[in-house]
Amino acid sequence: MSVYLKLRYPLVIISCFYRDIFYISISQHFQVCIAALDCARLDLAGECISALNHRFPRSNRVLRLQAMHHEAADQFDTALALYERLIENDPTNNSFRKRKVAVLLAQGLRLEAIRELNDYLKIFLNDSEAWIQLSELFLAENDFAKAAHCLEECVLAAPLNTLYLRRLADIRYTQGGQENIDLARAYYEQAAKLNPADLHALYGIVLALQNPFCFQCTNYLANHMKGSGGDRKRELFAT
What region holds the EMC2 TPR-like domain (predicted)? Predict the structure, then answer.
């Protein structure tokens, strides 16, 4: 075996070792930077960003960390400018748009955040978290119809998710009116069907049928007062 072949494998192992150490170090810089921002250690986050920016001067990930650093320092205009630049560089990256919405919410610009989320959902239609956030913003504006529409999109994406069904039922019940009350009861019943131990859904059925109170509610709960949560359900019904 030649000298080259004898030295080849140790060199490969050493190069791989140092390459792994290098990438672990870079990864740790990103993690430490985000943790420092969470702990309001802007000085430590700045050191990590400086080290990363020196190694990757044109990286969008590093630029995103810089924007987050400005965001943590309440320099919202600078952060928004950086996020706009990131969105222009990579329009398909949804995290940049979400951070922009977070900056708008931190400034209390609710209407601008709603507008930005609407534009975001035109591109990323299947993002249930964005629909939930948009529904909460509409609820803060007392726009129950649009909030219900957002939850309907979530139900279409995940029809077996009882959380979406309960939230949609709550909104319909809050809207009032016979039609909305009937829809709320239907959503509560579907949530209770998927999870018979769901007290929120069962109590929602009670509220939906309470005015006027009818025996259908009693019969429904009587059929579901079985299992480990039966005593709790009876107490709930008694109140």
Answer: 63-170
For the domain with range 24-116, which CATH number is right: 3.30.70.100, 3.90.120.10, 3.40.630.10, 1.25.40.10?
1.25.40.10
Question: Structure tokens of 29?
Answer: 């810089």
* Fold match between domain 24-116 and domain 125-223: yes
| Full-model pTM | 0.74
Beta bridge partners of 235: none
Q: In sequence order, what are the beta bridge partners of 213?
A: 210
Q: How far is CA 92 from CA 95, 126, 134, in A?
A: 9, 14, 20
Q: Indicate the fold that domain 125-223 takes in CATH.
A: 1.25.40
Q: Measured between alpha carbons, how far is 135 from 128 in angstroms, rounded to an integer?
A: 10
Round to whole Å and give the CA distance between 228 and 231: 8
Domain boundaries, the chain: 24-116, 125-223
And the tokens for 41? 């250690």
**What does the pLDDT look like over 62-76, one tens digit per residue?**
999 999 999 999 899
Whose CA is closest to 82, among 104, 98, 60?
Answer: 60
Could you tell me if 193 and 226 are in contact, meaning their C-beta atoms sit under 8 angstroms apart? no
